[in-house]
Amino acid sequence: MTQYGVDLFLVLILASLGLSALAIFISVSRRRHHSRAAASQASGDDFATEAARKVLREFEKNGQSVDAALVTWSPDTLRKILADELPDAQVIVVSNREPYIHNETKDGGVELVVPASGLVSALEPITRACGGTWIAYGGGSADRTVVDRNDRVQVPPENPSYTLRRVWLSDDEYQGYYLGFANEGLWPLCHIAFTRPIFRESDWEAYEAVNRKFAETVVAEARNERPIVLVQDYHFALLPRMIRERLPEAIVITFWHIPWPNSEVFSICPWRERILDGLLGSSIMGFHTQFHANNFTESVDRFMESRIERADAAVSYGGQVTLVHSYPISIEWPAELLKALPSVEECRARVRRRFNIPADAKLCVGVERLDYTKGILDRFHALEELFIRHPETIGNVVFLQIAAPSRGTLPAYKHLHEECLRYAEELNQRYGGQSYQPVVMVAEHHSQAAVYELYRAADICLVTSLHDGMNLVAKEFVASRDDEQGVLLLSTFAGASRELLEALIVNPYDAAMMSEAMLQALTMGPEEQHERMRRMRDIVRDNNVFRWAGSMLLDAARLRKRGDLDRVTALYERPAGPTGDNVVSMFERKQAVGFR
Ligand code: F6P
Fold it and tell me: pTM to 2 decimals?
């Protein structure tokens, strides 16, 4: 570049910064003006939004990831961030599992099912707050009958606030993409549960084809070139790149809901480079924990021609930058369905009646999909260990395990189901009698309201996953206990254990240790329960799901602003034509002019 070119470039950058500062100043003044005008009706929400802006300004100043600790996060905070920081951005969520499933009933009617899925519990309140479109596989037997001619249906049914766009899959596609590559390949690969991953060429082909089908649907649903696309989970590792190719100006935020293995384990995957290339089409790659974010970065470093920008927590690859951050997922707070539930006492009475549990027995509950990563059998082992080590507990404890059937046609899941039933039966024969069964195992789907009722009825909740990205059952149990009673036993291998430090943290592989923790929980006094539960409730309230989404949206807003600035400078630097993604060049140019 000539000296004149360099000068022009610097002048433009300074001018753009000046304009941004002016815009921020005007917007802050306008907001101050508004806030003065509305002072009489100032509310907690206004304070929250102002705090969010403060965080954003701070965040923009130092270019680091946002620390949103000061903000009270609510649906309103999210809406205001969208309106103020990402105006006109259309939100598109993509996941395999849909938030509402329509199924045919035996009498020819249609029933609505909310699936047992942490992803759905987290994303549903967010999409309800933000509006937009949620694209998902239509797997319900009546799903086709309720959509319009564009395969759309408005949800939630009782008070629609967003569009559910269904994507149809053939049996072969479902088998290869969902059951095969996603759940026999990537799922065991990413979880340390010692189940061998299975990789088949035909599954990979189906996975790629289905990712392309979803990419086409995203493009069809996008109202303009610049949507914010929230790609969910391991079903869509190729989708971010496919979206980037078709909508270069989209912000693609990909959230990986399960752990990411270390690079040695990841290297097992025959298509490891393709997966990384696909994911690096994202503007932001999110994980529950820093540990998994680091594992991802390490895999990229090892297998891709890339540059790792450690100070920025970013990866530069193929002319684009992807931020790699941890955003611990959470739940809605306050939980909407708590309002409709009776008192804890009433819940206890109902659940005990329903499952025939003696009034004086302590009730332990486990609630999850029937999955080998959840450590259900290990929980049974621990219960048996408790009975062996402390025989006085026999007759005084009942363990109620709710396990929603999941991926049931796969051999590993069938086997687990059989094993759970067999072991539960064995324990009942060994330690039970006519009026006492120590284990009640119910392998059926339960509504969210029924699950919350169980949480409220329980003395102890056991979340003993062998490995889990986060585990929202732990947080739901805490949210359900407004009486500040109940004890949580939590696996050290679930992401939630990084936050819920007042739980009794256990190693599910150590049955003896778990049985002692169970005894500690069974004998814990109400004061200690109260102290622990209160602190955990503070954490879940402050770090709710609106904060999770808000942090990502604020990061997205920063990227978009940088991208816009970059586009201005690019006009003077490059010949006219498509510029591709605009983030990386911003980083590189900043470095070139010694900007940091
Ligand atoms: O735990 C990862 C996850 O994708 C969750 O986000 C979700 O709850 C579940 O797995 C999905 O299960 P399913 O295969 O039944 O949709």
Answer: 0.85
